[in-house]
Design goal:
- This protein has about 425 residues and is an alpha/beta fold.
- It is built from eleven helices and 15 strands.
- Strands 4, 5, 6, 7, 8, 9, 10, 11, 13 and 14 form a ten-stranded mixed beta sheet that branches. A three-stranded antiparallel beta sheet has the order 1-2-3. The chain has a two-stranded antiparallel ribbon with strand order 12-15.
- α2 runs antiparallel to α3 and α6 runs parallel beside α7.
- The N and C termini lie far apart (about 45 Å).
- About 5% of the residues have low confidence.
C-alpha cells in the first residue's frame, strides 16, 4: 500500500475555521486528520502542500518513519506551523492503519486502559451569580471537573465569549480617554481589573459548590509573573485545583519563578509544539498537568512520547481540545491508552456549545455519557467525513481578538 494523494481543506465550521487533511492510498483506504493552529490554517495548509511530494509513494503504515522524515526534511527544525501540519498527517496515518488492520486506533497504542474518558467543561457566563448557577448545572449533568470563567472586562455587567469581537466596554464618560480611540473599538483587556473580579467570584464559587468538585481557571497566558502571583495570593488555600496557562511559555525560568510563589497546581502545554518544548516543564517539575494538544504537538506519535515522559514525573495528561470531532476522536483514543490521564477538554456541555461539532459534516462514533466519552470500537479514529460538504465550503478570514489596554498598548489574547 502506498500514499497516492494528500488534500487539505481549510473550511469554516461553527464559529471557527478547521483545517482537515485527507490522505488517500492506492488501495482505496483513506484517513483523516486535523490541524490545531487556529487562525493560521492557510499557513499550515501550505506546509501540507510542501510535504505532498515527500509523502506520495511512501508506505502509510510506517507512521514513525514518516514522522521523522517530515520533521527532519528541512534544515530549520520544528516550529508550530510545521508540527501542526505533521499532527494532521499523523492522525490521518493512524486512521488509515487502524482501518487497514480493522482495529480502533487505541489498539495501535497498546490497547485500552480505560473504557471511559473523563472530561472537563468550561462555564461561559461572566464571573458572577450566573456563572455559579451554570456550574451547578454542570454538576447536575455529571461534570465533576470544570473551569470557571475569566473576567474579560473587570466590570460586573456584560460578558462576551472568546468567539466574540467584543471583550469589554470602553469608558463612555467624557474624560481624558474619550477621544483617545474610536468608541467602537472595544477589544480592551486590563489584567489587574480582570484578576480582581475573577478572584472574587472564584472564591464565592468554591463556597457555594463545595470541596468535592474540581475547579480551575484558564488565564489564557494574559498575565505577567507579578500579576499571576497577585491573582494566586488573593485566593485562600484550596480554592483552585489547577491554574491553566497563567503566563506565556517562551521563558521557562519565568514559570519556574512563578511556581515558587504559589502552591496551586499548574496546567501547561497547549502551546507546545514538540516533546522538546516540554523538557523544562517536565524535568523541572513546573507543571502538574500536561495540556498536550494532539493536533499541534506532532500528532498521536509525539503525544504518546510526551505522556510516557510525564508518567515518570507523575504528571497527568489533560489534553487541549478546542477543535473539531477529528481532534476529539484522536484525543479520546489517546486518553484511553495512557495510564496517567486526568480529563479531556470538551467545548460541548451544559454550559457551552462552540459549534465545532456537526454530524452532517463529520460524524463520530464516540459519544458522551455522564460527562465521559464512551470509547468507540470502530476501526481507525471512528469518524466519517462528508467530503462533498468540504468541497463546497469556504475558508473565512478570522483572527483572534487583537487586545489592547486602555492606554493603547498591545496585550495578550
Amino acid at each position: 500500500m502506498k500514499i497516492k494523494n494528500i488534500i487539505s481543506y481549510p473550511v469554516w465550521i461553527g464559529s471557527r475555521n478547521q483545517l482537515l487533511v485527507k490522505i488517500e492510498t492506492d488501495n482505496g483506504l483513506e484517513g483523516w486528520g486535523e490541524s490545531g493552529l487556529s487562525a493560521r490554517e492557510l499557513g499550515v495548509s501550505g506546509i501540507v502542500e510542501h510535504y505532498k511530494n515527500l509523502l506520495v509513494g511512501m508506505n502509510p503504515l510506517e507512521i514513525g518513519k514518516i514522522w521523522q522524515r517530515l520533521y527532519r526534511s528541512q534544515y530549520f527544525e520544528g516550529g508550530r506551523t510545521i508540527t501542526a501540519a505533521i499532527s494532521a498527517i499523523d492522525l490521518a496515518l493512524h486512521d488509515i492503519k487502524g482501518k487497514a488492520l480493522d482495529v480502533p486506533v487505541y489498539e495501535l497504542l497498546g490497547g485500552k486502559q480505560r473504557e471511559l474518558v473523563p472530561t472537563f467543561a468550561t462555564t461561559s457566563e461572566a464571573p458572577g451569580p450566573k456563572m455559579i448557577d451554570q456550574a451547578k448545572k454542570l454538576i447536575k449533568s455529571g461534570w465533576q471537573a470544570f473551569r470557571l470563567s475569566l473576567s474579560q472586562d473587570g466590570g460586573d455587567e456584560e460578558f462576551e465569549s472568546i468567539y466574540s469581537n467584543k471583550f469589554s466596554t470602553f469608558p463612555t464618560s467624557e474624560d481624558n480617554f474619550s477621544n483617545f480611540r474610536k468608541q467602537e473599538d472595544n477589544n480592551i483587556f486590563e489584567p489587574r481589573e480582570s484578576l480582581n473580579k475573577t478572584a472574587k467570584w472564584i472564591i464565592e464559587a468554591r463556597k457555594e459548590l463545595g470541596t468535592e468538585v474540581v475547579l480551575g481557571v484558564d488565564l489564557h497566558h494574559r498575565f505577567s509573573v507579578a500579576e499571576a502571583a497577585s491573582f494566586c495570593n488573593k485566593l485562600p488555600q484550596g480554592t483552585l485545583d489547577f491554574l491553566e496557562e497563567p503566563i506565556r511559555d517562551e521563558t521557562p525560568s519565568a514559570y519556574k519563578a512563578l511556581r515558587k510563589m504559589t502552591n496551586i497546581p499548574f496546567a501547561i502545554g497547549e502551546e507546545f509544539a514538540s516533546k522538546w518544548q516540554f523538557i523544562p516543564y517536565i524535568e523541572n517539575d513546573i507543571t502538574q498537568f500536561a495540556r498536550v494538544d494532539i493536533c499541534n504537538v506532532g500528532g498521536i506519535t509525539e503525544s504518546m512520547k510526551v505522556a510516557g515522559w510525564c508518567e515518570s514525573h507523575y504528571i497527568d495528561m489533560m489534553p487541549h481540545n478546542p477543535l473539531g470531532p477529528i481532534c476529539t476522536a484522536a484525543s479520546i483514543h489517546f486518553g484511553a491508552s495512557v495510564p496517567n490521564f486526568a480529563w479531556l477538554e470538551t467545548r460541548e456541555s451544559a454550559a457551552e456549545n462552540a459549534g465545532f461539532t456537526n454530524d452532517e459534516i463529520i460524524k463520530s462514533s464516540h459519544y458522551m455519557e455522564n460527562a465521559m466519552y464512551v470509547v468507540s470500537k470502530e476501526p481507525g479514529l471512528g469518524i466519517s467525513v462528508n467530503e462533498d460538504y468540504l468541497k463546497n465550503s469556504k475558508f473565512k478570514q478570522w483572527d483572534p481578538p487583537q487586545l489592547e489596554r486602555n492606554d493603547g498598548s498591545v496585550t495578550n489574547w
